[in-house]
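Work package 3, deliverable 3.1, input record:
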Amino acid sequence: MSATTHAPAHGHAHDDHHAHPTGLKRWLFTTNHKDIGTLYLWFSFVMFLMGGVMALLIRAELFQPGLQFVKPEFFNSLTTVHGLVMVFGAIMPAWVGFANWLIPMQIGAADMAFPRMNNWSFYLVVPAAILLVASFFVPGGAAASGWTLYPPLIIQQGISIDMTILAVHILGASSIMGSINIITTILNLRAPGMTLMKMPLFVWTWLITAYLLIAVMPVLAGAVTMLLTDRHFGTSFFNAAGGGDPTMFMHIFWFFGHPEVYIMILPAFGVVSAILPAFARKPLFGYASMVYATASIAILSFIVWGHHMFTVGMPAAGNLFFMYATMLIAVPTGVKVFNWIATMWQGSMTFETPMLFAIGFICLFTIGGFSGLVLAITPVDITLHNTYYVVAHFHYVLVSGALFSIFAGIYFWLPKFTGKMYHEGLGKLHFWLSLIGFNIAFFPQHFLGLAGMPRRIPDYALQFAEWNMWSSVGAFIFGFSQLLFLYNVIECIRSSRKAPDNPWEVQDSLEWTHLPSPAPYHSFETAPVVK
Amino acid sequence: MDAAVAAQNRQLLFRLLTVAVVMLGFGFALVPLYRQICESLGITQSRVVAPVNTQVDRSRTVRVEMLASSSGLPWRFEALTREVRLNPGELVTVNYRVVNTLGRPVAATAVMNAAPSVANQYIEKQACFCFSSQQLAAGEERVMPVVFRVSPKLPSDMDVVTLSYTFFEQKAAQS
């Protein structure tokens, strides 16, 4: 799909045609997809550190049984806001940052379809994040009902809930605007010859993710609006005393919530599908089946929400339906894992940092997938529901799944973003510290869950003490190694190691084959022709 | 970006916005939708079944007869339930009625005795008028429940138990 009519010489002189403000104004008013991508990525890193601090407070409290550092109410706020910040503040904006940077370059477009709306999308996220974090400092403390915002607890708490609901509304609006932008860019602005089935897989996964976002973010907005009117305007959507049903919220929330977990993981599939062929020096195995598998996962994600609520007393027929539908998702996911392994099979593999994170992703995400299959079995889930087994499961898919592939993507595209090479040794150190810390932190949580330790508790019975200690040790290793990641990125930006235009010798993606490193501020103003 | 592409972009923007607005409405529509779907499919019944008392021995039945008498006290005292058939372990309620036929208020205490006397230790009362003294005004009538069970440990050769209540007047200041 490569070949060119457009030389990769798009130097700095070209930028002079455009107004190019500097300093704060440049970042505030920018409509440039690369600037906005950078803003998103730095913002998500800041939120990642904040959510990480909350996680470490949680693990510090759980290091030993008993109450040492925090009060139980504050602990509940920590688990709740940690979840919200990581999902809506760290993982999702990071993927939008990648989308902004990469999609226009990978499809040969000059910029996003609606550059001004792109700027709004980002600057909506900031006040939402401030609302979330500031809610710690209002009377009654931050939301303490868990990130799922279940009534009736959420109806009863103080003003912080209204701040959280408003934050979710703003984030939803931002996500919808971002998604519309991405879909329009992909469908309308592809370079001549770039057919849908020639797009890099990252573009494909984001196209599907954007559709998921448009379909479910409004449903979440509706659900939290119902919470708001239940709290302040006398409605009884979820209030049993007024004829409502708290279980109804769970149905509506998880109709959003399950597609949401694929929103966080589908772009990861795209990133890994870009990295593995580069370091195995083979084209991706089964490109078309990857596209269809991604679409199947997205469609199936709408009919499995019930597996989050096997214990609410659904009829057996409902539980069985959700159990089988959930297991069905393992089929397209298995296709993807098979294709990744087949891509590496007999390749000339080298193991630079992006490849290490990508392989770490495949191994650990698969573990998370398997524990997901275990939880999909209704009778098993009824005993494991709300235990640490569930916590272990979703951290395996979200941390070693989504987050590891974000790291992989950052290391992979840093040369293109910055024009410099990161320090390979430090990158590898970051990988190994993360891998070891992560597994020490989260693998024991499987044992804790199987032994019956409930999630979201600040204190626990003595028999859980030892694995909790290990889990906390691992969490601190993992948490502090992320400062090394920060150092690596800054060191890379400031270093003098000039990156070649195509350091990974990628053959089939426009940002590597057609653009210099660093990618010029304005790229592909004349669309390349893809053959 | 030329005008044709910009127009296409705008068209797609409005289509996708429409989808978002429709999905917002769908979120609210889910509330009645779930109710309707579950009702029409008949899957609204709860999987939770009423708790079953596992301590009831269904394999045998015991007949319990109720007697009532008053010692030296002209009260009308009778068992409204003369006889019940129950499974050991099962909680049952029987009623007694008492009428104070005297022209003055009377305080009296009831004492229970089971026959055969070995059965006494297997009668487990949860509520009984014999737990406290009964004060009745002149001519007052009162219906009083006894809630009890027969322990499943009741010897297997016993299939009839008689509960006999007797009222004794409490003499005031008789020390």
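Strands of chain B lie at 62-71, 76-79, 83-86, 92-99, 106-115, 123-127, 134-136, 141-150, 160-169.
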